[in-house]
Design a protein that fits this description.
Elements lengths: L1 E6 L4 E6 L4 H11 L6 E4 L5 H12 L3 E5 L2 E5 L21 H10 L1 E5 L12 H9 L3 E5 L2 E5 L9 E3 L5 H11 L5 E5 L5 H12 L3 E3 L5 E5 L8 E3 L4 H14 E7 L7 H10 L3 E3 L3 E5 L9 E3 L7 H12 L3 E7 L9 H6 L3 E5 L2 E6 L7 E3 L3 H13 L3 E5 L2 H4 L5 H7 L3 E6 L4 E2 L2
Parallel strand pairs: 2-14, 3-13, 9-10, 17-18, 21-22
Antiparallel strand pairs: 1-22, 1-23, 3-5, 4-5, 6-8, 7-8, 10-12, 11-12, 14-16, 15-16, 18-20, 19-20, 23-24
Helix pairs in contact: 1-6, 3-5, 4-5, 5-6, 7-9, 7-11, 9-11
The chain binds uridine-diphosphate-2(N-acetylglucosaminyl) butyric acid (EPU).
Uridine-diphosphate-2(N-acetylglucosaminyl) butyric acid binds next to helix 1, helix 4, helix 5, helix 9 and helix 11.
């Protein structure tokens, strides 16, 4: 079993470069299969979610080549086959193959997606959108079966009852070749949606309004290959910035789009963190006497739910009492019992997480139950006195590329060991 061992309390110094966004690439890959020739994605992170998607593509007879962050996808011989089980269940984003196969073949059989447990994660808005476009959708035995009649998908107006990243992207994928105009109202506005639309438009799609709450799609008949560079991962950036504010002497984070993390940086300002914002980088200086803050997660451009867990250990170093309310996933709290084991003064009070700082954290054996809980525990381990052993790290490797080497480069005492062999692996 792979584990991370962190000996905390070390001051951090140096530079970290952010990779392409996980939540973009997991949508860009299914979007790319809509082309009739090769799509080249640049800046692809080396993460397990990407490898899972590549296995799914192989099953669909899509040829791929992934080297040095460049992913070549040739979907010209893609076949329509059912994907009820297997890798499709290992990640959330596999639901994008519902929209993609519906668009490409007019049909699809896709197992319900897996991914991190964050409380209930329904896909009713995805299904509603496919039905509005004219697809017949059946959901039974953990599988979604999609079909279209002879006349194919028809553009329509779809109002999203909740603001959903996945449902917005899936509706775009499903409607990009539908006849006529589709309008998505109350669409999500995340940068990853703009990234997917940028790729699709380069492929020949006609989509306007990405980044606003109304997206208009004029159906096209053909989509062709192209080359696209992925936006930087704003959640990876926020994770390392949190670590830097907690333990950094001077850390430069490269390849950051400030506008994508504005609400997060505003919260750090409120805390009293010392930062310098550059054109595509942020320098974090040694920050002392930080103030406690209250956090409420919201759809973009609000404070991202994906950052509330990595931000929590930093809150624990500050003075005062604060709260976190995660309005997107109120049950995203599985990191808290592990933090408590490390000495954190936190408690869950209904839908409110109450935090008292400063809490003196000490190393302990803890388990990463999901991706961002894992990132939270890594930061807690960097802060804590003594040794922290983190299991469940397959969850972390799903979304953070080269996390061990990136942290070692800035002076962290962290290693990944494989218990079964007793050897260091990265
Ligand atoms: N929702 C519904 N019905 C739906 C879809 C969503 O009720 O049909 C609800 C969800 O339960 C949630 C809210 O709407 O309360 C927002 O969910 P959303 O659909 O936006 O989430 P998602 O698309 O499944 C993506 C990211 C998550 C991130 C959320 C919120 C991907 C692959 N995943 O999930 O990322 O937390 O948006 O920003 O893009 C992560 O990276 O760690 C992660 C979990």
């Amino acid at each position: 079993m792979k584990k991370l061992i962190i000996r905390g309390g070390k001051p951090l110094n140096g530079e970290i470069t952010i990779n392409g966004a996980k939540n973009s690439v997991v949508a860009l890959i299914p979007a790319a299969v809509l082309a009739d020739s090769e799509v080249v994605l640049e800046g692809v992170p080396d993460i397990n979610d990407v490898y899972s998607l590549l296995e799914i593509l192989e099953d669909f007879n899509v040829k791929t080549h992934f080297e040095n962050g460049v992913l070549r996808i040739d979907p010209s011989e893609m076949v329509s086959i059912p994907m009820p089980t297997g890798k499709i269940q290992s990640l959330r984003a596999s639901y994008y193959f519902m929209g993609a196969t519906l668009s490409k073949f007019g049909e699809g059989v896709i197992g319900l997606p897996g991914g991190c447990f964050l409380g209930p994660r329904p896909i009713d808005q995805h299904i509603k959108a496919f039905r509005s476009l004219g697809a017949e959708v059946k959901e039974e035995y953990g599988v979604v079966t999609l079909k279209t009649e002879e006349e194919g998908l028809q553009g329509t107006r779809i109002y999203m009852d909740v603001v959903s990243v996945g449902a917005t992207i899936n509706t775009i994928l499903g409607s990009v070749k539908a006849k006529g105009r589709t309008i998505i109202e109350n669409a999500a506005r995340e940068p990853e949606i703009i990234d997917v639309v940028t790729l699709l438009n380069k492929m020949g799609a006609n989509i306007r309004g990405a980044g606003t709450s109304e997206i208009r799609i004029e159906g096209v008949t053909e989509l062709k290959g192209t080359t696209h560079s992925i936006i930087p991962d704003r959640i990876e950036a926020g994770t390392y910035i949190s670590a830097a504010v907690a333990m950094g002497e001077k850390i430069r984070i490269n390849n950051v789009i400030y506008e994508h993390i504005e609400s997060f940086i505003a919260k750090l300002d409120e805390m009293g963190a010392k930062m310098e914002i550059g054109e595509d980088y942020i320098i974090v200086h040694k920050s002392e006497n930080l103030r406690m803050v209250d956090v409420k997660t919201l759809p973009y451009p609000g404070f991202a739910t994906d950052l509330q867990q990595p931000f929590t250990p930093l809150m624990l170093t500050t003075h005062g009492e604060g709260t976190i309310i995660d309005t997107i996933y109120p049950q995203r709290v599985k990191h808290l019992p592990e933090l408590i084991r490390m000495g954190a003064n936190v408690k869950v009070d209904g839908d409110i997480i109450r935090i008292k700082g400063p809490s003196k954290l000490t190393g302990a054996p803890v388990k990463a139950s999901d991706l961002r809980a894992g990132a939270c525990l890594v930061i807690a381990g960097l802060i804590a006195e003594g040794e922290t052993e983190i299991t469940g790290i397959e969850n972390i490797l799903r979304g953070y590329s080269n996390i061990v080497s990136k942290l070692r480069n800035i002076g962290a005492d962290i290693e990944m060991i494989d218990d079964s062999e007793g050897t260091e692996t990265e």
